[in-house]
């Protein structure tokens, strides 16, 4: 009997030791993995909160999310009380928590530093014990809206043309500019505007070039915007007057000799499209899909524009010794053997005089692009700063390289008939933040004076 009792006690001791060892080992297991995805850096009047917690089978015994500020924790969500948060399991092991955080949901929130703290625990050893993890993420709370006000006056814009505005935006780190319809045109520090006798040192003063595109309504809304990194916004309306402009319509016949020349050459030089079918079908793909892709690439160079005015406050080279073969926003209808096959809009000027004519820079700028570009053939794009750029297409040769600074009327190459060109000519256009605008304005000294120089002088004198 004593032997049996002793054996039983030994078994109990062994079981206790095993259980205790398992309990200790379980306590050393990893807690849930926590990732605070949003907000990344700032919390504004409202900001998205996104937390991802990973645990086996997504099982959590505890989840608590708080925002700590000035030593005070403000609850955001728990398992027992989501408090407006969405807590969803994704896949086998992941739980995602989302909600909005801001002054409306946290009345005690103040501008200044804060910290988001997430605590999560999961059951182990069949629920006998839990293991816990904590993650914290520092953020900056910004509740004050930016301020923006217009400084310049008399803003006149032609349909298809450009304009410039001078305004003040604070604080200094806000993103700002002009909104025309659903398009944004960024502002740049006015200190980068180079005009003789004008110096604008106030860091809050900005300059923005903007456009009213040829296909936008003349009543399209326009306003100044400012947006801080926390998502707080401000806006200001400004006086403006729009002048409608008629655009030409033309018919273009597509002879087989033209198609047989341009289609194979363009397709050989691009990887953007790979159409099948007969030559006409391939041309339509070039004239539509490739044109769109080329224009998207051209627009992408706007992000590389310098924050200073690289060009000087004089008119852009007007190419007056060239005949105008096609004007800006020419509405073209294409015919093949008497049948209408396509419609496109020509967003530039076609200028011709004699074959292989030297093509010069319209103004001082930096070469951003100098190679073959689909329908534009051999093409050069210059950046003149503050979102203003110019494009030169169909060149037979290119004499400059990307990164090179060129002066006004410096030779860029020679005219040609590369790309979608029926004959030797220069395709020239101006761009404002990647949007093609009517070059005629930039050739007009009165337009340059009234739309740009007048406003900069007024801002400098004030």
What is the correct CATH architecture of the largest domain?
Answer: Distorted Sandwich
Spans of at least 5 consecutive residues whose pLDDT stays below 50 are 14-27
The percent range for strand residues is: 35-45%
End-to-end span in angstroms? Answer: 108 Å
Output the CATH homologous superfamily of the largest domain.
Answer: Glucose Permease (Domain IIA)
Total number of helices:
4
Task: Explain what you see.
The protein contains 4 helices and 32 strands. The chain is α+β, with helices and mostly antiparallel strands and 462 residues long. It folds into 3 domains: 34-141, Immunoglobulin-like; 147-245, Immunoglobulin-like (Sandwich); 249-437, Glucose Permease (Domain IIA), CATH 2.70.70. The strands form 7 sheets. Strands 21, 24, 25, 26, 27, 28, 29, 30, 31 and 32 form a 10-stranded antiparallel beta sheet that branches. The protein has a 5-stranded mixed beta sheet with strand order 2-9-8-4-5, with helices on one face. The chain has a 4-stranded antiparallel beta sheet with strand order 1-3-7-6, with no helix packed on it. Strand 6 and strand 7 form a beta hairpin. The radius of gyration is 32 Å and the shape is globular. The termini are far apart. 35% of the residues are buried.
């Amino acid at each position: 009997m004593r032997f049996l009792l002793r054996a039983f006690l030994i078994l109990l001791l062994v079981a206790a030791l095993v259980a205790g060892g398992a309990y200790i080992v379980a306590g050393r297991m990893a807690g849930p993995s926590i990732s605070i995805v949003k907000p990344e850096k700032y919390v504004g009047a409202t900001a998205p909160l996104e937390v991802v917690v990973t645990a086996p089978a997504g099982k959590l015994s505890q989840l608590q999310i708080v925002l700590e500020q000035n030593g005070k924790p403000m609850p955001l969500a728990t398992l027992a009380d989501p408090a407006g948060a969405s807590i969803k399991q994704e896949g086998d092991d992941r739980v995602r928590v989302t909600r909005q955080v801001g002054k409306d949901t946290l009345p005690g929130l103040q501008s200044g530093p804060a910290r988001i703290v997430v605590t999560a625990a999961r059951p182990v050893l069949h629920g006998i014990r839990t293991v816990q993890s904590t993650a914290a993420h520092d953020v900056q709370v910004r509740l004050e809206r930016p301020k923006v006000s217009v400084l310049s006056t008399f803003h006149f814009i032609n349909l298809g043309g450009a304009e410039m505005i001078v305004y003040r935006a604070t604080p200094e780190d806000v993103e700002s500019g002009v909104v025309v319809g659903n398009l944004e045109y960024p502002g740049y520090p006015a200190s980068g505007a180079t005009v003789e006798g004008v110096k604008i040192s106030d860091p809050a003063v900005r300059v923005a070039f903007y456009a009213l595109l040829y296909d936008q309504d003349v009543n399209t809304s326009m306003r100044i915007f400012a947006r801080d990194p926390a998502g707080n916004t401000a806006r200001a309306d400004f006086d403006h007057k729009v002048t409608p402009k008629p655009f030409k319509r033309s018919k273009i016949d597509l002879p087989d000799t033209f198609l047989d020349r341009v289609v194979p050459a363009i397709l050989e030089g691009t990887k953007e499209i790979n159409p099948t079918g007969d030559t006409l079908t391939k041309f339509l793909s070039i004239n539509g899909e490739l044109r769109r892709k080329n224009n998207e690439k051209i627009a992408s160079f706007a992000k590389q524009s310098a924050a200073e005015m690289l060009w000087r406050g004089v008119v852009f080279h007007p190419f007056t010794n060239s005949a105008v073969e096609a004007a800006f926003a020419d509405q073209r209808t294409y015919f093949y053997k008497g049948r209408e096959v396509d419609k496109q809009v020509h967003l530039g000027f076609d200028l011709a005089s004699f074959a292989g004519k030297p093509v010069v820079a319209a103004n001082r700028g930096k070469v951003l692009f100098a190679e073959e570009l689909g329908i534009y053939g051999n093409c050069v794009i210059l950046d003149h700063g503050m979102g203003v750029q110019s494009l030169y297409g169909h060149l037979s040769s290119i004499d400059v390289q990307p990164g090179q600074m060129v002066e006004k009327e410096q030779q860029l190459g020679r005219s040609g008939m590369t790309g979608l060109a029926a004959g030797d000519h220069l395709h020239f256009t101006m761009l404002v933040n990647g949007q093609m605008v009517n070059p005629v304005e930039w050739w007009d000294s009165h337009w340059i004076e009234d739309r740009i120089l007048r406003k900069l002088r007024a801002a400098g004198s004030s």
